[in-house]
Amino acid sequence: MTFDNQTSSSKVRTAIFPVAGLGTRFLPATKSTPKELLPVLDRPLIQFAIDEARAAGIERMVFVSHPSKTAIERYVTEDVQLEATLRQKGKADLADMLHNNALSDGDKHATFVMQPEPLGLGHAVLCAAGEVLPGPVAVILPDDLILGEPGCISEMIAAYDNGTAGHMVATMQVDEDAVQNYGILSVTGRDGQLILADGMVEKPDPANAPSRQAVVGRYILDGSIFDDLRGLPAGAGGEIQLTDAIAKGVGTVGMCGFRFSGQRYDCGSKAGMLQATIAYAGQNPEYSGLLAGLGREMVAAE
């Protein structure tokens, strides 16, 4: 089945970053530091997400934040004074790194909107509606860290065809006892890395799960998602659920899953953050000896 969605461009130009959550699982650290700025070794979670979007050719980044999390905007935008101070102290390499990481104040491709109340992921995406460029949009959840080259969003954009499915969600196969923690696809077929589907079920009982293909924090959504979100009643927990809006559009724009090639870490949990830090450190030869030594110590202690 194909869908006639070609009246609007299939080019993905905008990425939405929902960063308004309060990170309660990481308290007390997140009392003063937003979860998205917590480091994986020496690199904040939000930087991984920004770099992934940049590598995918995203033209505009919309950050949906909370008024209490001004530190994210300070981090994302360029600090000319700090860079100048570093250069005066002979630390040009650090100044260059900060300059390259930042989204300059003069760039129109970075913008912030506020989500004052925690009304769900769907509501966060809807808050960005007035700032997106025409066409489909990407949604990147920074606390779902996916390590690998090419980046997950780059892979998804390369495979995206809104004539086949207007909504594409990143998926991974999970163990049967884990399906209750995810949105799960109702699978109708497969085409390479694409998982064709006719809907999804949010956090099903393992006995009733339609598959083991779990949705994780990367989406490419047809522009119709905003109209579907506007007309959506509150769902589970009194929140506007993005999965409900995606399911609503299945009959008109279609949906599919995408099996990405990278390794995903749930950095919304302490265990996932620790796993990500070890994995990322393992990619750096500077820490290989340290990690090997820790491994030997753990084996000896058993």
TrEMBL record:
Keywords: Nucleotidyltransferase, Transferase. One of its GO terms (biological process) is UDP-alpha-D-glucose metabolic process. Coiled coil: none annotated. The keyword Nucleotidyltransferase applies. Its EC number is 2.7.7.9. The keyword Lipid metabolism does not apply. Gene3D superfamilies: Spore Coat Polysaccharide Biosynthesis Protein SpsA, Chain A. Pfam families: NTP_transferase. Belongs to the UDPGP type 2 family. Residues 20-252 form the Nucleotidyl transferase domain. It is an enzyme of class 2 (transferase). It catalyses: alpha-D-glucose 1-phosphate + UTP + H(+) = UDP-alpha-D-glucose + diphosphate. One of its GO terms (molecular function) is UTP:glucose-1-phosphate uridylyltransferase activity. This is UTP--glucose-1-phosphate uridylyltransferase.
